[in-house]
Amino acid sequence: MRRKSSRVVIASALVTTALALSIGGFATVSLRDSQIQNIDLQLKKIDDAVRANPDSPVSSALDAASEEDFNITIAIVSSNGRTTIINESQLEFDSLPDDSLVASALKTPVTVEAEESYRLLAQVISGGDRLVFADSLATVESTFTSNLKRVLLFTLLVDLLAIGISVLILGRNNRKLEADSLLRMQRFLADASHDLRTPLTVIKGYSELLSKNQIQSSEDRTRAYERVNSEIIRMENLIHDLLLLAELGETTRPIFEEVNLSDLVTSYSHDFSTLNPTRTLDVRIDPEITIDGSVEHLRRLIQNIFNNIIRHTEERAPVRVSLYLMGKRATLTIEDGGKGLLEDGYRDAVTALNRFDSRRSPETGGSGLGLSIIAAIVSEHGGILNLKKSELGGLAVEIFF
């Protein structure tokens, strides 16, 4: 339960982080792009003014910058590479970048990566000189960095809030689940102690009678020994099932391997048919259906289903076994023509440590935990267990692996 809660908290934190970073990052990048677009608009206005007055490019550029109050560096770069600043700004501009960037800047504004990055736009004027317009990106980059820090801080705060809320909600749910689990455990222990006490009482009673020679006839003594032996077997079955349930409840999963489920079900179906010749057995098993699982636990699963049928149905009740693939899932259905479960026993989820019908144990010699063990093994293999009424009239155990 703790592992599952931890996974939920981590998942909520990851989702929150992804959303916060995506939204915050998108907003931050969009703002930076918008600021760069504003710089480009200023550069293009000056560039358009120069193109409109080719005879006086310098004065046109200065007038446009002055009228719009643009804080832009304007310079003339001669054909021999000499740079003359004619309008200064906070940008320290001393020379042109490499020719490829300049060639691009003659068409559209480009970003020049330098100690202080800037946007550059240029055009060729008379005499082969180049008139360049440049604006610093320092403010844009500073704002971008500051906004990124805010996004990260906001993400951290949102993550802490999400983790806190998740822990609070999971804590409440876990307390409820633990309370329900404790209640089921208490009921289970009460049933188990009662089932253990009953055969012990019988064994103790007959032992006292036999030890005091109060049972005279050999026939009665034989019957008493048989009764003691049957109660011992019943106790062994209950203890074995309790140990198996405890094993299945461990957090460490057994080693899984590829299991040929078709062969396994076929083998147990054949054994069932051989040992129960009075029953009609209809077997429909598709070949070579394999799953990853514990061979021993899957054997116990199939054996428990057949044992339940033997114990709780009449000797001539028909049985049907089917195994096939439904999509990518193996579907195993074993159904009988018995009386089925009590009305409240048919449900989609079977809870471990819950006996369906406590009256079964004394009547049949079983522990009454067969279906609980089946449910635990199915859960261990990540499957789904359905209990429903069979077309044959009894119980249909349907398992999706």
Automatic annotation (TrEMBL):
This is histidine kinase. One of its GO terms (cellular component) is plasma membrane. It catalyses: ATP + protein L-histidine = ADP + protein N-phospho-L-histidine. The keyword Transmembrane applies. One of its GO terms (molecular function) is phosphoprotein phosphatase activity. GO terms for biological process: cellular response to phosphate starvation. Keywords: Kinase, Membrane, Phosphoprotein, Transferase, Transmembrane, Transmembrane helix, Two-component regulatory system. SMART domains: HATPase_c (SM00387), HisKA (SM00388). It is an enzyme of class 2 (transferase). Its EC number is 2.7.13.3. The chain crosses the membrane at residues 151-171. Residues 191-401 form the Histidine kinase domain. The keyword Ubl conjugation does not apply.
